[in-house]
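Lecture 7 notes: from sequence to structure.
We start with the chain below.
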Amino acid sequence: MGNNILKGKKGIIFGALDSSSIAWKTAERVYNEGGEFILTNAPVSIRMGSINDLANQTNSEVVPADATNLEDLENLIQAATNKFGGKLDFVLHSIGMSVNVRKGKHYTDLNYEWLKKGWDVSAVSFHKLMQSLFKLDAMNQWGSIVALTYIAAQRTFPNYNDMADNKAYLESIARSFGYFFGKEKNVRVNTISQSPTITTAGKGVKGLEDFIKYANLTSPLGNATAEDCADLTVTLFSDYTKRVTLQNIFNDGGFSSVGVSQEIIDKLNSK
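Predicted C-alpha cells for the same chain:
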C-alpha cells in the first residue's frame, strides 16, 4: 500500500509493453499511490505485449495510439480528458526504439531511413506529445510531464548506436518545450536518466549485460532498478516537486559522477 500522494491525480502512461517495462512498474506504483490513468502504446506493441493484464490490475483503460501521429495523440488526449472529466496532472513518455540497433547496423554504417524512424519514435514523438497537450490546453497547473532517457546522451557507449543521438535530442526537447510549458501553463517537464535496465526493448542493445555489470561496479549505490525509477517518477508526479523542472535527473546510483571505482581498478589489477 502507498501513501496516496497521487490521490485525485489523472494522467496518461505511454510505453508499458510487459512486466519488465519501466512504464509497467510506474503504472503499478502510480495506482498504489492513488493515481488514475489511461495506458497507451502503439497498436503493434499492444498486440505483442500484455498491457491488457496491467489494465485489469490497475482498473485502467487501454487506448491505442501511435505517438508519432498527431491525430492519434489528439484523439488519445481527448479520450483521457473526457474519461476523467477534466485536465491531466501527469504524463509519462517511456518510448524508444532503433531499427539500426535491431538490424545490427554499426554506427559507422547507418541506414538513414531507419535512423529517421527511430528518431521520430524515440524523440520527436515527445515534442509531438507536448505540442498536442499544449495546444489542447490539456494539463492542469502544476502538472508534471516525465520522459525516460539514458546517460549515453552525454557519454559514448559504442553499442548504444543512434539511440544515444535520439536520447540527446529528447533531453533537449524537454528543456526547450519545458520552458514554454512552465512560463505559460505552470507545468513541469523533466527527464530521468535511468541506470541500464533489462527490458524487452533494451535487450536489443548489444552488450547490455556488460553495460549493467560495469555500471553496477562503478556506482556507489549500485544500479537503480525499474522499481526505483517508478518511485522517482511518482515523486516527480506529486506535489512535493512543484518547482523541479527542466532537469535531467540521474537515477543511477551515482554512476554519472564517478570517474572510476576501486572495484574497476581491482578488476584491472587482477588480470
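Points to note: Strands lie at 10-14, 36-40, 61-62, 88-93, 139-149, 188-194, 248-251. The chain has a mean pLDDT of 96.
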